[in-house]
Amino acid sequence: MKTVPTEQAAGMILGHDITRIVAGDFKGPAFRKGHVVQKEDIPMLLDLGKEQLYVLELEQGILHENEAAERIAAAALGKGLSLTEPVEGKVNLKAAYQGLLKVDVQGLARINSRENIMFATLHSDQEVQKDQNCAGTRIIPLVIAEDKIREVEDICGRHFPVVEIRPFKACNVGLVTTGSEVYHGRIEDRFSPIVQAKFESLGSRIMRQVTVSDDQELTAKAIVDLINEGADFIAVTGGMSVDPDDRTPAAIRATGARVITYGAPILPGAMFMLAYLGGVPIVGLPGCVMYFRASVFDLIVPRLLAGESVSREEIASMGHGGLCAGCPDCRYPVCPFGK
């Protein structure tokens, strides 16, 4: 470190904290070690009695923590994210729009295996909102050799993008409501409004709803008719259990759809079905979607709306973390469900 007159310190790096004391009101750091002195900081520094400052001198090939964090974040940055200005050496990655967060977990681990580097993210495959903080990175020391950052940039290049947001498609959803009790008006349909609200929150709309009794042929016909009318996503509610009169899975098969899975290792949501008729996803939604804030719907449907194809193997892997803890106050997705 060297000593310089405060008036000449603009652009230099503070080598120590500078404390500000306001009697009876405040005592704390006005400027922290590592802060890059700005021209507008100089009057305050002089007001604090600092006519001279200890500053760091960076040798060639050595980076300050702010520049290092900016370079790491920029190298990892995919679509749908923006970078914050560095604050005390940390840069955050924020969502530019609502969508599905995708993280290359292997690439992230390789970044964090490098000494004195940290990069933290939210869990992959969850819905995030515009301006939500999704990741943050910094180096551990105040300065670092540039070669270390080049190594991280090389990792990011091989795993690019390490972090991105995939936007949800605005789908026209065909909704098929099954159940003789609803069809004949014996009970109120409380399931459809919940499904509609979930799709709308993800940027899609229910283009038309068809209500049918527990009849395999009528249900299959309703699915095909809605696709012919332009639906690019089908949701079928009701009739998903193993009761003799629950015929929704058989009706979905009867359309000629390719079934990915009937059943998922997820609670709530074990009786979920996923199939494709042509390129149109068809989901059979069990009744738990109506009663639980977070269910199989929230783990799989957002991925489908982001344009992903979810395989049977991926669904099978969801058993680890697929048990909802049933918290009195649901905070999903800020919880382990589905992680």
Any overview of this molecule?
The structure is a single chain. This protein is α+β, with helices and mostly antiparallel strands. A six-stranded mixed beta sheet has the order 16-15-17-20-19-18, with helices on both faces. A four-stranded antiparallel beta sheet has the order 7-8-12-10. Strands 1-5-2 form a three-stranded antiparallel beta sheet, with no helix packed on it. α2 (65-76) packs parallel to α4 (146-158), α3 runs antiparallel to α4 and α7 crosses α8. Helices cover 28% and strands 28% of the residues.
Biggest pleated sheet? 6 strands, mixed
Taken together, the total number of domains comes to: 3
* Number of helical regions: 11
Report Rg. Answer: 27 Å
Task: Name the helicity range.
Answer: 25-40%
Strands across the major sheet, in which order? 16-15-17-20-19-18
- Overall mean pLDDT stands at 93
Shape: elongated
CATH superfamily of the largest domain: MoaB/Mog-like domain
- Structural class call reads alpha+beta
> How far from one another are the termini?
47 Å
CATH class of the largest domain: Alpha Beta
The CATH architecture term of the largest domain is 3-Layer(aba) Sandwich
Low-confidence stretches: none
What is the name of the CATH topology of the largest domain? Molybdenum Cofactor Biosythetic Enzyme, Chain A
How many strand elements?
A: 20
How much β-strand is present in the residues? 25-35%
